[in-house]
Amino acid sequence: SGSCDVGFSCTYTNTISWRSDTTPLSGENNPRAVFERLFGDAGSTDSAARLARIRKDRRILDSVTEKIDALQRGLGPNDRVRVTEYLEAVRDIERRIQKAEEQSDRELPEVDQPAGIPATYAEHARLMFDLMLLAYQTDLTRVSTYMMAREISGRTYPEIGVPDSHHPTSHHRDDPTLYEKIAKINEIHISLFGYFLEKARATPDGDGNLLDHMMLLYGAGMSDSNLHDNKGLPLVLVGGGSGQLKPGARHLVTKERTPATNLHLTILDKMGVPVDRIADSTGPLDLLTVS
Fold first, then answer.
1. What letters, b where the CB count within 10 A reaches 16 and e where it falls short, cover 47-74?
2. Global confidence as pTM
3. pLDDT digits (tens, 9 = 90+) for 19-65
C-alpha cells in the first residue's frame, strides 16, 4: 500500500514475485527464516531432524485443514471467498511439505541454521545465494527470485567506498564522481551473482553440474536510472537450461521496443510451461532457440 515514486504502489518496490495477477508474494531477507522454511527449525540439514520436523508439520496441517472444512460449511459467500484464498495458501504449504517429504533422505552438505542477518551486505547476499543453491540441490524448488536490493533502495555501501544512498546516487546527472560510485555498486552486485554461478557450476547434478540444468536471468528494471528509462534493458541469461539454450557467450540485440516479457515468455516455454502471453509480450524470441 502507499505510493512509492511516480505514483506506483510500494508493493512493486518490495517484490518481483506474484502468486497471481493481483496477489504479490512477500519477500524474505532473513536467512534464518529462509532456512526454517526450507528445512524446518531443527537447526541443521541433518536428514533425521528434517524428517521429524516434516512429520510434525504434516500433523499440524491436517488438523488445520479439517477445521477449515468444518468452518466453511456455515459461511456466507463473501467469507467463503476469503477462506478460499486462505486455503490456497494452505495448499501451497502442503505442496512444499510433500516435496520436502520426497527429498528428506537426499544427501546434503552439513549446514547449520544461520543465526540471522550477517553484518555486511556481501556476507548477507552470499548466504542467501547459498540457501538458494541448497533449495535447488534438494529439489525443494525449481523457481526462485532474488532482489539484490529493493527498488528505490536507500542502502549504503561503505565497505566499497560508497557511503551514499543507492537511489540518489543512481540519479548521477552525468557527474563523473557519481558515475564511479554507481559503477562500484553494480560491480559488487554482479560479482555476487558470479559467486552464485561458480558455486552452481561446482555442484554435480545428474549428467553434469547444476548450472548446466538452470536458466538464470539477471538484470534491472531500468537501462538509465538517471532518466528512469526502461528501454533497451541490459539483461543476462546464464545456464544451459538442460540443453534448451544455445551454448556459448553471445551479445544479443533485439529490435527496438521489444518487450522484456518476450524473454520471460521464451524462458517459460523452455521450462515446459508454454503460455500465450505475459503482460505486454508480443511473442517468444527465436534468438535463444537451439538449432
1. bebbbebbeebeeeeeeeeeeeeeeeee
2. 0.78
3. 888 888 888 998 888 888 877 766 666 666 666 766 776 676 677 67
Domain range list for the chain: 215-290
Q: Which long-range contacts (CB under 8 A, 24 or more apart) does 222-230 make?
A: 225/170, 225/171, 225/172, 225/182, 226/170, 226/171, 226/172, 226/173, 226/174, 228/6
The distance of Cα 226 from the centroid of its chain, to the nearest Å, equals 26
DSSP character string of 90-154: HHHHHHHHHHHHHHTTS-----BPP-S--SSHHHHHHHHHHHHHHHHHTTS-S-----SS-TT--
What percent of the chain has a predicted confidence (pLDDT) above 70?
A: 80
Helices (H) and strands (E) in the chain, counts: 8, 4
77 has pLDDT over 70 = yes
Q: Which of 148, 134, 127 has the alpha carbon at shortest distance from 190? A: 148
